Amino acid sequence: MDNKNTPGVWGVSPTHGAWFNQELMKDCGMIPYMLHRVYGFRPTMLGRKSGEYPYLKLMPGMRMEFLPVSEYEYHGAKIRFLQSHFEEMDMLVLYGPYYPYSDFLREYRKLRPDGKVYMSLDMNSIWAAGIAWTDHWFIEMLDSCDVVATSCRKVQEHLNRSWGRWPIHYIPNGFYNLTGQPVNATPQQKENILLTVGRIGTEQKANHVLLEAFAAVHTEIPDWQVHLVGRIDDAFLPYIDQYFARYPQLRDKVFFKGLIEDKAELYAQYARAKIFALTSVLEGAPNVAAEALFHGCYTVISAIDAAGDITNDGLCGREFPIGDVGALAAILKEICPDDALFRDTFPKTIAYANDCFDWEKIIKRLHGLLYGE
Fold it and tell me: pTM for the complete prediction?
């Protein structure tokens, strides 16, 4: 698969250029990698190094090319690298309509007019509304792309209404199990667990909404727990102390699990949980939602742009107004005691995940858009 006769796909980091390990399992890494898995492309991620990359061990064939420069030198170094390696770059994957991509893409088109360019827009409507889409550099940049797609249907509809000049496709953030172990989730093994996964305590994730809602109804759902998986933001630590001071009885019901980078261990957390909760103020289409769907979790989610995509318009979950503790508490009070709900929705959720969020199916659609096959 890795011989020089096969095309090379390069995922190029934007702006400051630093790749993080978690991005290998998001669209940043999965699009090049799945083009390798399914079609034999030679995948490379180009950017700056930010630390170690344990997920690379799960992605045989994936290569990372690091530019040993500062954030401020990255843009020029990236273009110089392109000028030396353009013959290997049969396809580019770019992540967001960022201005620094414009010079890079202009140079690529001079050197590789035959190359393919995919622009991945994992954006929300607020970000989309702020884009200077009438500026010359922006028009030139998107005119140079073969396919432009976003990961959320609501944003796709907004962009197609607003921009008009380019067809915006829907390419969701999917799931592909790289652990080598089968996904092991059944209704019988589900426990009374409310699970959330992400950067715990950041303003964007608004984890306090889940914690306050649970505190409001915990006496009415006494056999339920909350599990929070992810690195805890330092600024959130005083809130946690205050929370347990206010609700000492919840110390044996609310558990901060920390960051779990072992994907098999993380998937075991999803497999146990009946409900996956996402309380974010703002998101594109979070890949944790696809992970939860593939493990049959019923999703309770704030009304972010992708909420309808994730809940299958209410067939696999519920949404509540962003930041509304009372609304979330009311939903938890209603659904947590309803075992029939979880039994009925489990197979529908698994089927929906396989139909819509399987990376193999997603990458075949993207390949067809790019190459007409």
Answer: 0.93
